[in-house]
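Exam revision sheet. Question 4 asks you to relate a sequence to its structure. Input first:
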Amino acid sequence: MKVFREALIIFGFLTACLVFAEASKERYDNFKVLKIKTKNARQRQVIEELAENMKGFNLWHSDDKEVHIMVNPQKLIYLQNVTRSYQLPFQVMVSNVQSLIDAEQRAQSTDDLSFGWTRYYLLADIEAFLDDILAKYPEVTSHIDIGTSYEGRKIHGIKISYKQGNPGIFIESNIHAREWITSATATWFINQLLTSTDTDVRDLAENYDWYIVPVLNVDGFVYTHTTDRMWRKTRQPVEGSRCIGADPNRNSDSHWMESNGASSNPCSETFAGIQPFSEPEIKAVTDYVASIKERINIYLAFHSYSQVLLSPYGHTTEHADNHDDLMAVAKAYSDAVKALPYGTEYTYGTSATSMYFTTGSTRDWVYNEQGIRISYTIEFRDTGRYGFILPPIQILPHCEDTLAGILALVKKAKELKYLEVKYAL
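Answer key, structure tokens:
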């Protein structure tokens, strides 16, 4: 009887802990995401400034045609009045953000304990997956110690190399914490490179060196699981501000804080940090990339969402000197993905012209400062129906899209002579 009572006490304690943990999470009950059509930069700026300067709004997406903004139900009438004042047509894309989060969490709890791609995983699970891969394939894989985050977490990566003398491809994933589909895709892609028997995939795996970081923003990623599913930034406090974190994809030292491509407001989602490389995660990954830049021919930054490939530049609408080649390679990716049964459509263009101005991105830093001539941000599924909360049932179809796209991207880049070995053996 004593053992039974003790078991009940332990069960009650664990249940209470679980209830407390769930209660402490940020909730988004009846928060909506509106798609607002804009005709010019001024109209877009009006909506963006709401997210920048007022609580209750969160920018999800912006381009030259429309803005997607999440709104607290208490601020919905205010937003509707703004759209009416500027005669901006809108539609509700997501009627209740919390319902999407709840559905995502139900999928988490119904899966088995093995690592697969029918659910999203915690950082510890992803790290265990990498450890398992390293143990299973010691002859062709090696661990990359990228560095340490603000909160003291190790940033883990993996190198896959079947032989010396291969050109290199670097994949950065989950720099924005809430973009869970990116690390899911990165881990699936790692597994494919090592296990697929497809002839094209074997060629991809064995004739290129792969450097892959599944979760770069480790602190933010953990925070999205424990506290706030919609968190985007790092977790380093900002001196003199109540707000936490910077946008790690605005923190590299490449045209930092130019052209309205980032914010100086610590509470903004696009806060660039107090100075370039102020975020230890970005300092770590850029130091690592700089140390092996002669071994990297292609740099891919996995993001979500919008289904678009973004090439340099983000700080200006001027074209890079190899713009035509960058567009040809992006088109190859887009065409290959659309040809699959899912028919997923990707657009492509420069960051500044196809989406918005961005400064201090890792994509532009490797292109401008490290001479890596094929560099893209790839914004994954979807175009707004689910946004950052892509249902787990779409993980595998999306991963298949990505593999087809990368196969075509690499093939075209090779055809255009961007995959010549840059270093002496």
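Marking note for examiners. Residues 42 and 301 are 29 Å apart (CA to CA).
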